[in-house]
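Could you please consider the sequence and fold following this short note?
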Amino acid sequence: MDDDLLALRAACTRSLTGHGEWRADTLLAGVPADTAPDRYGAGGVVTELEAEVAGSLGLPAAVYLPSGVMAQQAALRVHADRRARRTVVCHPESHLIRHEEQAFERLHAMVLRPVGDRYRLLLRADLDAVAEHPAALLVELPQRDLGGQLPPWADLVEQTTWARQRGAAAHLDGARLWEASAGYDRTPAEIAGLFDTVYVSFYKGLGALAGCCLAGPEDVVAEVREWRRRLGGTLFGMWPGAASALGCLRRRLPLMPAYLDRAREIAGAVRDLPGVTVVPDPPQTPMLHLLLRTPPESFAAAARGLAAHEGLWTWPQPMRTGDPGVVRVELPVGDATLALTVQEIRAAVAALAG
């Protein structure tokens, strides 16, 4: 963002998405003064967080890591080495394909095999195209790039069964598992129970400092700890992120159903606006995408106007689509979204849509 836009954002008193602007004072206030530090990831609040996450997911063990990129590389490398296989089956829009600079191929000599249509959910029937026996099946819940969609529960069960029938691990990219729990109306443990290993993020839906956990069997988690060190992730002190995560997990996980209700209220309030399409409609998790029939330049001007004249931060810029007259934005619902009325949100979306 340019300096003018950064200044506009800093001056805004309200935000449409998530939990509001990331501010150092707010984030650091979530780290209690009596937090017990760790030493190289052992002891203190890091151990406390790992135990709480393992308990929440109903899995034997968990390990705290600084990033999801590292967590999933490590877990899938362990699964591959144990099976002497190099292929991981995943959706074409998987984070590992789109956002990780070919790390699997360059660092681990592994192969990501995309399966299914990039514009729709991965379903069990898509896996029939895979004849080889992979090391793992990676499932993302919810599918962020599709607006937070979830496969039907029965189909999800069939996908993980398919993996195990082929001797492959079932791994969950659960960066937004907390949101998926609300969408399925099931506990995180019920969802995690379908998988061998589960990655969960703390800075996304929960709004904590950066960091994540990888959970699963004790022996697999122990190997992931070794890979954390090999990949440079065992920092001298990991307690700030872990303390932030623990507090946000306890505070915001119970609010996920309320966030989902608000997402559906927003969809109901904006779906009749000219040039607005809700994806998916209705929302399946506490997030949604909006397709707006307006050029990117008009959207950016309207967003600046809302920030300058109403003190409302929306998006710095939209995502482009294949149609130059249509843009896409992602609306994760959080505390800041709940603080606005549905009528205020409708008016903001109407302004952005021109």
